[in-house]
Write a sequence for this structure.
């Protein structure tokens, strides 16, 4: 009999931010297939017989192709195992959880999803930044900074006109370009903006600046991936926490 795969969100990093349901899945798993952003402390919750499969970056720094990860999930479930596919944050927020669910459905393998706290909301919250606030932002927009096949998928003119909070994931290597695009398309240079690195981890770090100064400030502070970029008035509220 074939097994089953649970796509489980591990939350932004602090192990306490994983859901109870996710933890139950982890404890019952026969195999766990995990990503780079998953806190390794969580793996200690697995049973002694559980097989741990790391599909984070390989030694040559290239990601394991998605097809290969799908094949691993199908193979493990095919052995009759309870498989947990453990991902940072929420599995369906830029986590390719949708692609994996599709592949499993095609292979006729049962799949269930356990949502997680996404870094885009929970990571900011741990830095004292509310993603919405009645006085400042009535919407928020979560955007990938990643280029697909070298192409920028975004309409920056449109994004610059939104009054809501912009949260950009996977954007650190393009931070200067992103801030420039938004300013060139009309977002005010003095808009509060922040970078939160390693959100919810003990080594969390943050830089608060403006759209114009954020790239330089975060470069000087030595911030890099994994970081959240947040642009909008709500970023200034993190100051309350710093006082
Ligand atoms: N599914 C994840 C996002 C995966 S994309 C989620 O819901 O959070 C990976 C990107 O998420 C990273 O490049 C970074 O921008 C962001 N990220 C994830 N965890 C983070 C953390 N603890 N601190 C800062 N950024 C984080």
């Amino acid at each position: 009999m074939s097994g089953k795969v649970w796509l489980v969100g591990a939350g932004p990093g602090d192990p306490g931010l994983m859901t109870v349901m996710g933890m139950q899945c982890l404890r019952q798993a026969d195999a766990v297939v995990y990503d780079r952003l998953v806190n390794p402390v969580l793996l200690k919750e697995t049973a002694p017989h559980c097989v741990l499969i790391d599909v984070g970056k390989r030694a040559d720094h290239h990601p394991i192709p998605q097809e290969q990860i799908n094949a691993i999930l199908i193979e493990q479930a095919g052995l009759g195992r309870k498989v947990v596919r453990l991902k940072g944050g929420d599995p369906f927020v830029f986590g390719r959880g949708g692609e994996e669910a599709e592949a499993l459905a095609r292979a006729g393998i049962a799949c269930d999803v356990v949502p997680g706290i996404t870094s885009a909301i929970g990571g900011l919250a741990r830095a004292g930044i509310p993603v919405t606030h009645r006085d400042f932002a009535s919407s928020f927009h979560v955007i990938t900074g990643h280029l697909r096949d070298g192409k920028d998928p975004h309409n920056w003119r449109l994004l610059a006109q939104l009054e809501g909070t912009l949260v950009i994931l996977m954007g650190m290597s393009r931070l200067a370009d992103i801030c420039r695009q938004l300013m060139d398309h009309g977002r005010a240079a003095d808009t509060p903006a922040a970078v939160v690195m390693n959100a919810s981890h003990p080594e969390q770090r943050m830089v608060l600046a403006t759209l114009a100064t954020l790239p330089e400030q975060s470069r000087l502070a030595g911030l890099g991936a994994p970081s959240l970029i947040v642009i909008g008035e709500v970023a200034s509220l993190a100051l309350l926490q710093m006082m």
Q: What stands out?
A: Helices lie at 20-28, 66-78, 97-106, 119-126, 156-161, 175-184, 214-220, 238-242. The first helix runs from residue 20 to 28. Residues 14 and 196 are 14 Å apart (CA to CA).
